Every structure is written in structure tokens, then in C-alpha cells.
Amino acid sequence: MDLFTDEYFMKEALKEAQKALAKDEIPIGAVIVSNNQIIARAHNLTQTLNDVTAHAEMQAITSAANSIGGKYLINCSLYVTLEPCIMCAGALYWSQITKIVYGASDNKKGYTTINSGILHPKTQVIKGILENECSNIIIDFFKKKR
Description:
alpha/beta, 5-stranded mixed β-sheet, 4 helices, 5 strands, 38% helix
């Protein structure tokens, strides 16, 4: 039995989402994995950094590139709790990341609402991993805001 499943790494991304929640950020978390090792952990920091580009994915891409010493994330996988937006999908395209796994779909601002072909042609996408846990943390966050 393989310990390092998509569910295992999505649980690690959910831990990052919890860190965002503790900072009153939109609770989205991400990890980037290479050879079954987490090389980057990140969560939304748009409020903290006063930066609309400080999405979990963007933070993770920068951290992973620094970790491996290069800008291309070939043979790396991103696990993120919410479907990437267009901005993040564009950055993931340029990073040439090999695999993207996301939990909850974003029917309002996710990249698939506009163009699902925005990712690198070699990037594999898996959606719906721990979907309920990933969507519930966001739904609960916004319920409390209203």
C-alpha cells in the first residue's frame, strides 16, 4: 500500500488551508510534491500581504522554484484545495508543472469556467480529491463572513 496517495497530499494542503483560516484569509492551501517529498507549502496570503496575486498556488510555485533551484516544475505535482483561477493556471502553465490535483471546483472563478485548455498540454489534472472537506472549509468561512 502506497502511503503517498493523492488523498495524503491533499490532507497536507488542507493543513495549509487551516493556517490561512487562522489568519482570517480565504482558506485555500497548497503543497507541491516532487518524488513523494513536499518541497513547498503555502496558503492564501492576499490579506496579510495586501497583494491580490498572493494566492496559495502562486506562493507555492515561488517556494518550489526556490527549493529546486529552477523555474520549471517538471516532475512536480501541485495539490490545492480549490480549483486554480485563471491567473494561477497561467502561472502553472509557465511552470510546466506535471500534475495538478485539486479538491473543490470553483464554478465562479476557476480556470475551467473560461478555458480549460489554459494549462500546459503535458499537465495532468485530477479533480475532486477530498472535495467535501475542501469545499466545506471555504463555505463555512464565507458563511461566517455574511
